[in-house]
Every structure is written in C-alpha cells, then in structure tokens.
From TrEMBL:
InterPro entries: CAT_RNA-bd_dom, CAT_RNA-bd_dom_sf. This is CAT RNA-binding domain-containing protein. Residues 1-58 form the CAT RNA-binding domain. One of its GO terms (molecular function) is RNA binding. It comes from the Bacteria. Pfam families: CAT_RBD.
Length: 160
C-alpha cells in the first residue's frame, strides 16, 4: 500500500490494488512522503468510498465518522470497524439524497429523541459537521438514521 497524499500526521490517502482508500492511525503520516510504502502495523482504521464520485467528499465523510466514533467511545460504546463502514455508507447516502429525507427518518428521529437522546446527539453532531463542511442541505431527521447505526452497535455489543 503506497501513500498517495498525506492529509495530516494521522491520515493518508493510499493507493491499493482495489483503488484509493483513506487510512488512519496515530502518526501514520508523520515524515511519510507520497509514493512511499505505508507501515501497515500503524493502520488503525481504513475507509473506501463506494458511492461518492467526489473523493474529497468521501474524505470528509471519513473524518466525520472518526469524530462520531470518538464521541461514541465517550458514551461507552465500543465501535467496531464494521460500524465505521456503516456510518460512512449512511453519510454517503445522505449526501446523494440531496436533502430528501428517508421516509422512516422522522419516526426513527422521534424515537431516539425520546429514548436515546445522547446517541441522537452524536448523529446530530455528525450531520452538522457534514452539512457545514460540504455546505450541503440535509434533513435534520437524517441524524436519526446515523444514530440508529450507533444504537445497533451498542445493542450488538451488549446482547451479542
């Protein structure tokens, strides 16, 4: 896996045989130059966009997911790599929907607001970051769809 673009000390866009991916890890980009081999043992997370044609939008989705994963840890949720992928996919679909809310989003939003407000706040934070960074319109109820992924992860860990 070769470094294509260094985003910061902790994030690199890498070239693989499957295409470009974003890899994250503490210090993974420190003193690395484009074209150099990436230290695989330093990779903590990686993301590959499936639906977005604009790679910059995808990188922003990955950074928003990283923020949501950190916030979920503070609530005691132990996020998995699969959660990162599901959250990235949820954000990609929200961008592609161009402000059109999923028909189930208002119902899910209301349920989470009443029963799981802290998890909903993480979804709201992620949606706000996405909206502000990409300057795109999103339906606030979509925060419930994002938070539902976190709630599912929490339930899987407690009951699985």
């Amino acid at each position: 896996m070769l470094a294509k673009k260094i985003l910061n000390n902790n994030a690199i866009i890498a070239a693989t045989s499957l295409g470009e991916v974003v890899v994250l890890g503490c210090g993974i980009g420190y003193q690395v130059k484009g074209g150099e081999e990436i230290a695989i043992q330093k990779i903590e997370k990686w993301y590959s966009g499936q639906y977005l044609n604009n790679f910059e939008d995808y990188v922003i989705c990955c950074m928003v997911v990283d923020q949501m994963m950190s916030a979920s840890k503070r609530l005691g949720i132990r996020p998995s790599q699969m959660l990162a992928g599901r959250l990235t996919l949820a954000l990609e679909l929200i961008i592609l929907s161009k402000g059109q809310a999923n028909p189930l989003a208002p119902v899910i939003y209301q349920h989470l607001q009443e029963n799981h407000p802290q998890i909903l706040q993480i979804g709201q934070m992620g949606l706000r970051l996405l909206s502000d960074t990409l300057e795109c319109d999103v339906a606030i109820q979509e925060a419930g769809m994002i938070a539902l992924e976190l709630l599912n992860e929490d339930g899987d860990k407690r009951h699985g």
